Amino acid sequence: MLALAAASTLLFACSKKKDDPDAGKATINYQVTSSNASSTDFTFTSAKGSGKQIAFKGDGSTRVEEYLLNFNNVDFFSNGAAGAIASIKVPAGSYTNAQFNYQMIPSRNPALEIRGTYNANGTPVPVRINLDQFVEISTKMPSVTLEAGKTYTATLNLDLAKVVEGITASHMTNATRTNGEVVIAYYSNPALLQTVVNNINNVIQHSVTIQ
Q1: Is 1 exposed, middle or buried (0-12, 13-18, 19+ CB in 10 A)?
Q2: pTM (2 decimals)?
Q3: Helix, strand, or coil (residue 87)
Q4: Do residues 87 and 28 touch, judged by C-beta distance below 8 A?
Q5: Where exactly are the structural domains of the chain?
Q6: Which residues of 69-85 are buried (b: 16+ CB within 10 A; e: fewer)?
Q7: pLDDT truncated to tens, each residue of the chain (211 aa)?
Q8: Which CATH number applies to 23-210: 2.60.40.1180, 2.60.40.1120, 2.60.40.3540, 3.40.225.10?
Q9: What superkingdom heads the lineage (predicted)?
Q10: Which helix (DSSP H) or strand (DSSP E) does residue 91 occupy?
């Protein structure tokens, strides 16, 4: 009877684990932050994104891609819970070429809106950058190991100095102003917007810290 009881208990435990969709998975909490908000020329005070989804991609024993739609707006100037996006479940294992992605898409708000000032010979001029197109912050780690049942935090950093890299004093002096503000968008100063887009696509090395 004891042997039979033990066997029945083991069968029940295995069945329960098999039915649990999160068994054998790790949890990754995604959050965002920003860096280099102040420089000689620019001082940024806010950066907000209109969320679309978060994603994890990596090469393990097989290719793993996990996506989660999430339309919450986030504040890149917040830390911890205030800058949190969402959590995603990922099969435990060791991965190479691991990618942690946060995708934004315009709706009633731009996909990404950055505000601040530009120092024009000692006079601060308001600056607003509106990206009204799909924006993705994609960061890659050469390798990462995720253990089943454990929770990790992936912090994606937006380097604001690199967002405006290549925009010079001459550009800002000649930029069109709207009610005293330099608006960089598809409808205003589009050449400067293209510089920003190129920076986000090609220059920025978004960092992720797994804890």
Answers
A1: exposed
A2: 0.81
A3: strand
A4: yes
A5: 23-210
A6: ebeeebbbbeeeeebbb
A7: 322 222 222 232 333 445 567 779 999 999 888 889 998 899 999 999 998 999 999 999 899 999 999 888 899 998 655 578 899 999 999 999 999 999 999 988 999 999 999 998 889 999 999 999 998 888 888 999 999 999 998 888 888 999 999 999 999 999 999 999 999 999 999 999 999 999 988 755 555 566 6
A8: 2.60.40.3540
A9: Bacteria
A10: strand 84-91
Nearest CA-CA partner of 52 in 16, 106, 1: 106
Contacts (Cβ under 8 Å, ≥6 apart) of 190: none
